[in-house]
Amino acid sequence: MAAIINIAGLTPVNDPAYRYKMPRITGKVEGRGNGIKTVLMNITDVADALKREAPEITKFFGCELGAQTTYSADNRAVVNGAHRDNDLQSHLSKYIENFVLCKNCRLPETHYKVKDGLISQKCLACGSKDTVDMTHKLTTFILAQHKRNKEVKKAAEKEKEKEGKDGKKEKKEKKEKSGGDEKPSKSSSKEVTTGEDGEVVVEKKKSSKSKSSNSEVVPESVFTGVAAALEEESESKVVGKLIS
Ligand SMILES: [Zn+2]
C-alpha cells in the first residue's frame, strides 16, 4: 500500500487534519537496457484522488521527463526509462500545482472548462475560474482528450435518443397488445372452466388410461415370453426371440 499524503502542489501542506488526501505515486521498474520502463502501479488511485484522468497524468510524466508514455485499456500506465518514486512524486506535485489546485483558494476542487481552445479551471470551493498555463505541452493532450470525450458523449446521447424512441415504441406496442389481450385472456379463462376444454381433458385422461393399461399388458406378455425363453435356452436366443 502506498503511503497516504496531503494533496499539495509546490508548497507543502503540513496540516495532518487536511481533508484532501492522495496515495503517493509508486512506480515499478521493468525490463532493462533500451527497453527499461516504469509502470505507474497506482495511477488510477492517484487520478481518483485528484479527480483527473489517469491517461492525462501519465502523459504529464511523459512531458516532464521527455519520455514516451503509453496508457492501455487495462489501466496500465507506462513511462519509458527508470524513474524513482521520489522523482515521480515531485513531478506529480508540479502537475497538481498547475492542473489541479485552484489558483485562488489552492484547494483541489477544480474541474476543467474548455472554450475556444482555452482550458480553464473552475473551482467548486470558491467559484474562481482561471486559465491553466497554455504553454505547457500537456494542454494539447487535454484539448484532444476533451474533443474525444465530447464525441463519445455525443454518440452515446444519440444512441440513448434512439433507444429512448425505440423504448417508447416498444411500450406503446406492449400497451396495445396488453389492451387487446385483456378481453380474450378473460374469455379464454372462462373457456377453461366451462365446457369444451374440460371435456377434452377428461377424454385425454381416459385415452391415456386406456393406452397405459394396454401398454401394461404388452410388457407382461413380453416378460412371460422372456421367462419362457430363459427356461428354454441361451441369452442370444432370448434376444432373438424378443426382437422377433
Ligand atoms: Zn478555489
Report on this model:
With 244 residues, the chain is of the alpha+beta class. It folds into 2 domains: 4-151, Defensin A-like; 190-204 and 215-243. It contains 6 helices and 9 strands; from the N terminus they run E-E-E-E-H-H-E-E-H-E-E-E-H-H-H. A 4-stranded antiparallel beta sheet has the order 3-4-6-5, covered by helices on one side. The chain has a 3-stranded antiparallel beta sheet with strand order 7-8-9. It has a two-stranded antiparallel sheet with strand order 1-2. Strand 3 and strand 4 form a beta hairpin. Helix 2 crosses helix 3 (85-99), helix 2 (54-65) runs antiparallel to helix 4 (138-193) and helix 5 runs antiparallel to helix 6. The radius of gyration is 38 Å and the shape is globular. Mean pLDDT is 79; it is low at 179-244. Zinc ion binds at residues 102, 104-105, 107, 123, 125-126, 128.
Q: How far apart lie the N and C ends?
A: 80 Å
**Level of helix content?**
55-70%
Number of domains: 2
Weakly predicted, low-confidence segments: 179-244
Which whole number gives the mean pLDDT? 79
Query: Architecture of the largest domain in CATH?
Result: 2-Layer Sandwich
- The radius of gyration over CA amounts to 38 Å
Strand content: 5-15%
Output the strand order for the largest sheet: 3-4-6-5
Top CATH class of the largest domain: Alpha Beta
Shape designation: globular
Number of H- or I-type helical stretches: 6
The total strand number stands at: 9
Structural class: alpha+beta
